[in-house]
Amino acid sequence: MTGPGDADPLLVADFDFDLPEAQIAQHPVPRGTSRLLVVDRAAGRWEERSIRDLPDLLSAGDLMVANDTRVFPARLLGRRDPSGGAVECLLLEPVGPDEWHALVHPGQKLKPGAKMIFENAARAPGVQLCGEIMSRHFHGRRVVRLGARGSGRGPWALGLGPDAVAAAIDAVGHIPLPPYIHRPDDAADRDRYQTVFARERGSIAAPTAGLHFDDALMTSITSAGIGWTTVTLHVGYGTFKPVRVERVAEHEVDAEPFTISEATATAISRTRAAGRRVVAVGTTTTRALETAATPSGGVTGGAGSTTLFIAPGHEFRVVDALLTNFHLPKSSLLMLVAAFAGRELILAAYRDAVRRGFRFYSYGDAMLLT
Question: Which domain does 213 fall in, by range?
Answer without folding.
Answer: 12-71+188-369
